[in-house]
Design a protein that fits this description.
- GO terms for molecular function: ATP binding.
- It is found in: Cell inner membrane.
- It holds the Pfam family ABC_tran.
- The chain is of the alpha/beta class.
- The protein has a domain of 78 residues.
- Helices cover 31% and strands 17% of the residues.
- It is built from 11 helices and 12 strands.
- The strands form 2 sheets. The protein has an 8-stranded mixed sheet, sandwiched between helices. It has a 4-stranded antiparallel sheet with strand order 2-1-4-5, with no helix packed on it.
- A hairpin with a 2-residue loop joins strand 9 and strand 10.
- The N terminus is likely disordered.
- It binds iron/sulfur cluster and magnesium ion.
- The site of iron/sulfur cluster has 13 residues, from loops.
Length: 321
Amino acid sequence: AAALSRVYEMRRGLFGKVSSVRAVDDVSLKVSPGETLGVVGESGSGKSTLGRLLLGIDPAQHGRVTFEGKPMPTFGTAEWRASRAKMQFIYQDPLAALDRRLTIATQIREPMDIHELFEGSARTDRVAALMAAVGLRHDQANRYPHELSGGQRQRAVIARALATRPKLIVCDEPVSALDVSIQAQVVNMLRDLQDELGLAMVFISHDLKVVRNVADRVAVMYLGRIVEEAPSDMIFASPRHPYTRALVSSVPVPGQPLKGRMILQGEPPNPADRPSGCAFHPRCPFAIELCRASVPELRPVEDLRAAACHLVDSANAPIAA
Ligand code: SF4
Ligand code: MG
């Protein structure tokens, strides 16, 4: 029951703030302590907007976000700032997230100073412990961001994000800017820390290989809506929505043939030009008249899985790719 009170959820009808473009539309999701929710989709799918809505950085025009059972405070208020100690955002570009005039140790310490957490000397000890936890060397404490590699900078950003003992971390493409050889190291570290600290984590990425490695559950987004949500192993072994099928088909697992591979056709989605009905219909090989006319609801299609497709059963049939 204690765990349930820390559930992080968002309900119905959230819209991006960009004029009339529905960056995020009618999304409902939950992340529990100790759980990592992967959010995948092409660029323009609304994933980043969703991340900002979750943290209250972009206000939802409809719907609500609750954190630890209470509504998310309004952006910029004292309540919002206080709640920020419990939730942290990690962006793609660590250099942009860091202040180039301040040492790494100062920046890891800063959130504890701002939120007045821990006693003075405990803060210093904690900086050292956090640096060790993310695999930074003691002698890097007094370095400046430009004196570190990209991977080390992202480790510093993660250490700083953990400084306030957050309950929730939203990561938006946290390793996309790093060399492929470094990505796995940083992702594994993040996963281990998440596990150890029982964090709720939302991991936003266009890179399915990374998400497969880190997520317990996966939500697949297309033009601002979730089109499929299921435990990670189900998403990757037996995707049901045609869009998920196409995404998963593009990252085959060696030695694990995927039934019904599908090649993604056509242009990536454009939020300013949303097709009628099922927004995926112009690219879907199964589309019928109904798909052009009516928006499919996200609904349970089997235990632990929801999908938004009129033809979720027949769409699972093999097709000639
Ligand atoms: Fe394809 Fe129709 Fe399903 Fe949309 S609702 S994914 S167009 S079959
Ligand atoms: Mg993005």
